[in-house]
Write a structure and sequence with these properties.
One of its GO terms (cellular component) is nucleolus. It is found in: Nucleus. By secondary structure, the chain is mostly helical. The chain has a domain of 93 residues. The protein has seven helices and no strands. It is elongated.
Length: 228
């Protein structure tokens, strides 16, 4: 390809570039950015830096130098990284869809550790048996009953008596006797009119009843006999 044609095309491109940059060159950078929004200011500053670095890269090529070995290449790559940051700032919703692998790994490890701890605790309770579960508030308390000494005639319930006891029949007889004595009391009678029951284990023919004595009548007279 004829080098003259390339130079002519390059000269025309420079003329177009001067026309495009004329509004920006006529004012300072601070004057051009004072009326812009924050995101637009960032775009303009990054574009200016990129154009300058790119022009230096072109100049190195025109001088026959390898730009890959020059520091301008590293600086140009740094400026390009800001284009990605500006794009992420313009579209924050796409940033939220990104997966944070480090945070996800932390959550997964924490869940696994909690599951292992719960499983080990359940296994320890199962190995300890039901006896270990009765500690704490679930303790059966048994209150023993003392033996009374005043009411000796009261017998314990039948379900508390020992089996095959020889006194079971005697206890039943005593209970029947107590009930009979209670029934013998009549409402409205004086205490002296109540005849006590005959003593136990006495023959029926030898039972004698004594006439009730009135305590208010005094002692009845007795006859005294003297033998000369």
């Amino acid at each position: 390809m004829d080098p003259g044609i390339i130079l002519t095309s390059f000269s025309a491109s420079l003329d177009n570039l001067e026309e495009v940059l004329e509004p920006l060159i006529a004012k300072t950078l601070s004057q051009n950015t004072e009326t812009l929004e924050t995101i637009d200011k960032a775009k303009l500053q990054v574009l200016v830096a990129y154009v300058i670095q790119d022009l230096v890269l072109i100049y190195l090529k025109t001088r026959g130098l390898d730009p890959a070995k020059h520091a301008v290449t590293e600086e140009l790559n740094r400026v390009k990284s800001y284009f990605e940051k500006i794009s992420s700032a313009e579209n924050p919703q796409t940033r939220g869809l990104a997966l944070d692998k480090a945070a996800a790994n932390r959550f997964i490890k924490a869940a696994i550790n909690e599951a292992k701890a719960a499983s080990e605790e359940a296994s320890s309770h199962a190995a300890a048996g039901p006896s270990s579960q009765r500690t704490g508030n679930n303790v059966d308390v048994v209150i023993p009953f003392g033996k009374h000494t005043r009411f000796t005639h009261v017998k314990p319930p039948r379900n508390e008596r020992p089996e095959n006891s020889d006194e079971s029949s005697d206890d039943d007889d005593d209970e029947v006797k107590i009930v009979d004595d209670v029934k013998s009391l009549q409402i409205g009678k004086e205490p002296e009119d109540i005849v006590p029951p005959p003593p136990k284990n006495l023959p029926s023919g030898s039972t004698k009843r004594r006439r009730a004595m009135d305590p208010f009548a005094g002692t009845p007279p007795t006859s005294l006999s003297f033998r000369c």
